[in-house]
Amino acid sequence: MRYVVAAKAPRKVRLGRSDYALRGISYVTVTAFAAFCALPFVLILSASFSSESAIMRDGFGLLPKEFTFAAYEYIFRAPRQIIGSYVVTIVMTVAGTAIGLFIIAMTGYALQRKDFPFRNSISFFIYFTTLFSAGLAPTYIWVARYLELRGSYLAVFLQLLMTPWLIILMKNFVRSVPYEIIESGKVDGAGDFRIFLQLVLPMMKPALATCGLFLALGYWNEWYLSSLYLGSTVEFKPLQYHLYNIINTANALRNSVAGSNVSITELPSNTLKMASAVVATGPIVLLYPFVQRYFVSGITVGAVKG
Amino acid sequence: MVTQTSVGRHEALPTGSGKAVPTKSRKPLLRRIGDNRTLLLMCLPALAFFIVFSYAPLPGAWIAFTNFNYRDGIFGSPFVGFRNFEFLIKSGQLWLLTKNTILYNVAFIILGNILQIALAIMLNEIRSKYFKKISQAVMFLPYFISVVLIGVIAFNLLNYDTGALNALIQQTGGDPIKIYSIAGAWPIIIIICHLWQSTGYGSIVYFAAIMGIDNSLFEAAAIDGASAWQRIRYVILPSLKPTFIILLLFSLGGIMKGNFGLFWNLVGNNAALFQTTDIIETSVYRMIISQNNFTSSTAVGLYQSLFGFALVMLCNWIVRRINEDYALF
Amino acid sequence: MMRKSLARAGAAAIVLALSTTALAACTPGEGAESGEPTNITMLVLGDKPTNGRLEAMLEKLNVKLEAEANANLDLFYVEWADWQTQYNTQLLSGDDDIDLITTATDWLFAWENAEKGAFLPLSEEMLQEYAPKTWEQVDAEGHWDLTKLDDGQIYFIPEDNFTQYTNHGFFYRGDWATAAGIPDGTITKFEEFTTYFSWVKQNQPEAYPWDVSGAKDAALIGYLQGHTDGQTIQQISAGNYYPFQTTESDPYTVTSWYMEGDELLEAAELAKEWNEIGVWREDALNYDGDTREEFYAGLSGADQHHTQTFIGSIVDNMTKKQPGSDPKFFYFGQENGNFFNDILTHGAMAVNATSKSPEKALEVYDIIRNDEEAYRLLNWGIEGTDYVITEDGKLGFPEGYDSSTDALGSNFWAGRMDDFELDRVTDAPNKQEIYDELAAAAKDYEYSTLVVNKDLIDPTLAAMGGVLSEYIPQLQYGKFDDPAAAIAEMRQKLEDAGYEDARTAIQTDMDAWADERGLK
């Protein structure tokens, strides 16, 4: 916890009135804002445990009304779809994050090497893509017609592998790795790739955690590319696209619990939507605390230029 | 090996290829590639990615100038010049979309950064380790939630007939508000949703920057008897400037783009709100969904890219004139 | 040393390649070698059923198809969530795994897609050789002309031997209408719904008079149809709207009820009145609930769709779920007889332009359309488990069958045949009366063979579609304070979009078409 120590050090000096005032304001504001951020989660969670009729009558509330597990029972009565979606999303998230992170780190490292003559041109080549894009239709035609990726999970998987922003973030982090370490590697006769793999990479854990989280979130929350490139072509839709379908069509909702032999009017459709949301969002939220400890020291943004 | 010594040696010794021009300090391209092949190879997967998914589709933007059909494809379809742009310009739609997109982004950037910096500074003031950790985690939560859900929650809170907000207003004796018909209310709602979604994680970037400030600066300030406000004004804010400028320039690159998912899931097809909520990306999406219109939508996209590109070039030029170090390129 | 790091980089690249191929392997692969049966995939609309009944049926059907055509049939679903995007992007992708495509000239943009080259032109020889029965039947009735573009080629096969009425209207409850004081509980005029809706609003606090969701235009169209003699030209759409009409009194002059006359304003004012009564949710445009289920649950006083839905599901469901509700149907244009028999291309089958085996696809189509055994399997499923034939020769369902979870869902809407169809036990008991009444009053759609060259007006139509999608839903829900001003504004924008040019272009085609037939 390097940062905690760092933060404490200057406060050893005696505190003035303004310091106490600021601290008071800080506690109040941060608490208020955190509450504001948490509110919708509380609403979703409480709705998912409420009875359908209570929701229809009184709308959402902070506490579950007429507490029940009914909605979750429906979901897990016929869990095939949701389990399939989970598997697809988890495989994509894990594989995509690992591969993407490796490429991003490798590129970030190379671009930060001061003795690499192409680093500015390559940086610009990458940054340029944030400025200029072909647009939805041409990209779709290219990916679906020419790369023939429609209906393939690859269409989603590959397009989320990296973003210019993450490469630049990574590049800036590598900058904080002392150049002497790279030097010493060279003196020992290590190749560039080995220096990266054995000396630099281990020092980049916070950056990897940070970029990794962004990548993982990108995969986890993805629904848009799935709707364009997968549609109904795959048996198991990625989790959030599955959720999007549940929320947007009554039929998908019915299919998602098919086999449980209920007609749609008897389905607790509001609470079921919310319970599906909890099931689809929960795991990634639980992952966060494990990443958090790397987090603060991870995102330091220096200059974009090399 | 591309070590300092080997570089020197290469320059000193004539090479077998004979292509090197001794008088020039720069080495020929092939040689530079050869010398840096490992580093280049390391960039290769990323380069391949951007070539395949960002550069390769670019020529396809030609579709904006054609009357596209599947049979002849993008480049065989009849050329129609600027006809796909005509109505967009004539109807004033392009102007409306540009205005909305830019204004939203400006609001997001300004309000977002102010809020993020303020929160970061306050987080830094908090002593309790657990309080800090938990509040950070909670503020990060909205980033995990899918925009699809944000639309559902917003509808459940704001709709006229059963919405929680109107229920509350009625309980307190007020008249319910037809929020989904009031175009003027939506910029505020969308901005709040966006800030709700992004402030937590954005503030962490600044928080990290504050953590990185040299302690001696704080100590010096304390010795000079600086108040908390002076400490913020003279120590923290100046140290955040580089981070701020980088983030700013980066978000400028996306100023003609938008948080599509958020807008789409909040507003959808409600045309009553388009005047204040339609941005380029939602308009393009609707053209494709309901009109099967790949050409005009690409025309808008092309305009979006060109306009955004010019804007960033201009900003970069200005920044470069003020302080070259902060320029993007 | 460098060699080593190169090797490492190479290894990394291989890992990458492997993991991507591993993922690729999870996606559906190719089938069919020569000698093996050819896989034919048919695109249908609807949600893919997950109850296993479809697969069981296909297994049986494929035994037959293999024996007769050495082919297998598989269905590809374009699901209802975002179905327009999904359908359009599926065609745009040029996916060569699809062979047969369900289309329609009035709701699936068959003409547009044919013009854009998504469908394979079908030569007469090809049809005669590979789909002889279909060819003969359609040819005997002279219906191939309904499927030709201006190049004279056939682009799809019409579902021309299947009686159905897909004229839209309101479903409402006779019991409530009676209580509202409407004579006989039967609404005969569009405006009478004001009385009905007001009564529901005041006396049925649980229910919305008409719970409706999303961007619709039915309330406006319903009024326009019943108060003008406008006849929509179904070949020309602008987005989701059909802005060009002729009139019965002047059938060869192209006009638009969105542009001419005061009826649109009257309709909009009525809608505004309904909105003020509270006929629909204030936020109907953003609401996305299942309103039909709400009608069944007694939570909505009305629902809106076409005759076929009324006969096939509304009567049955309402009788079961709301006993005594006496469901009734008011169809648009009822008061002045301004509605049409179904066009014969409300359902049609096209062959994908990129299909690898178009001949085989036609062979399979010929069987599922013309062979009674195959037809029954595909449409109804397996006898005994999916359907039964009752003693009086009706199509019924086995004991314990629940249509909301047990449906076959094959959704073959592009080649059904009256010859094979049976009355269903769930059909409205007065089905035949309804058909007879409609048949007596309905007009024939005259312009089926009119081919409009849209090449030049495509951008205009797109622009008009954009304008209409902005104004029509708001007019329909009565959201403008001043409908007259809004309509004026909309008309101006349509003019700017090039309405007049488009109208003239269509008029030219109309003139040529009418001259050719000596109609003018």
UniProtKB/TrEMBL annotation, chain A:
Cell compartment(s), UniProt: Cell membrane
One annotated GO biological process: transmembrane transport
Pfam families: BPD_transp_1
Residue ranges of the TM segments: 20-47, 86-110, 122-141, 153-174, 195-220, 274-291
Domain ABC transmembrane type-1: 86-296
CDD domains named among the record's database cross-references: TM_PBP2 (cd06261)
UniProt keyword list: Cell membrane, Membrane, Transmembrane, Transmembrane helix, Transport
Gene Ontology annotations for the cellular component aspect, listed alphabetically: plasma membrane
Family matches, as InterPro entries: MetI-like, MetI-like_sf
Main location: membrane
Topological relation to the membrane, as annotated: Multi-pass membrane protein
Family label: Belongs to the binding-protein-dependent transport system permease family.
Name this protein carries in UniProt: Carbohydrate ABC transporter permease
Automatic annotation (TrEMBL), chain C:
Assigned keywords, A-Z: Signal
InterPro entries: Bact_solute-bd_prot1 (IPR050490), DUF3502 (IPR022627)
PROSITE patterns the record matches: PROKAR_LIPOPROTEIN
Signal peptide: 1-24
Transmembrane recorded as keyword: no
Pfam family membership, one: DUF3502
Residues annotated as domain DUF3502: 452-514
Source superkingdom: Bacteria
UniProt name for this protein: ABC transporter substrate-binding protein
Phylogenetic classification of the source organism: Bacteria, Bacillati, Actinomycetota, Actinomycetes, Micrococcales
